[in-house]
Amino acid sequence: MGRARTPVVAGWFTEEPERPEDFRLLGTRCADCSAVFFPREDDFCRNPACCGTRLLEVPLSPRGRVWSFTDGRYRPPAPYVSDPAREWEPYTLVAVELAAERMVVLGQAVPGITVADLAVGMEVEVVPGVLNEDDERVWTTWHWRPVGARP
């Protein structure tokens, strides 16, 4: 029997799409003012000029452009879960501008992509990712991958 696949945060992305290219981050759109939010908002519109409470789930654009990026080279302190017995692996954090939604979304780059592989304005796509694994679970998330990069 395989390990359970568990999203790091339920409802923030499509959990098991039929095709990998159907993977999307999930936001919400206010039915009154059309503002889009990520992370999702399910109770009220965050737009200060709107009092809307009708929020609809919407898939966000699958591609965007690198707005900024940096690398994480240190083991974060508690309460971050990190196994001290395992060697710390640096990661690349990417801020991606989604033009249609008029927002910037953060996420890790796919493993193997470093800051040397990125440039501001480069096109990237959202893909399924793994944040952590243990004997019982695979904790799923999203990653950003440069368009044209191999999986």
Topology, please?
Blueprint: E1 4-7, E2 26-30, E3 36-37, E4 55-59, E5 63-72, E6 91-98, E7 103-109, E8 123-133, E9 137-146
Parallel strand pairs: 1-9, 7-9
Antiparallel strand pairs: 2-3, 2-4, 5-6, 5-8, 6-7, 8-9
Share in helix: under 10%
Report the total helices.
0
Largest sheet: 5 strands, mixed, barrel
Number of strands: 9
Summary tags:
151 residues, mainly beta, five-stranded mixed β-barrel, ChsH2_Znr, NA-bd_OB-fold, Benzoylsuccinyl-CoA thiolase
Descriptive overview:
The protein has 151 residues and is mainly beta. The protein has a domain at 61-146. The chain contains no helices and nine strands. The protein has strands at residues 4-7, 26-30, 36-37, 55-59, 63-72, 91-98, 103-109, 123-133, 137-146. The two termini are 26 Å apart.
Short summary of the structure?
This protein is mostly beta strands. It has a domain of 86 residues.
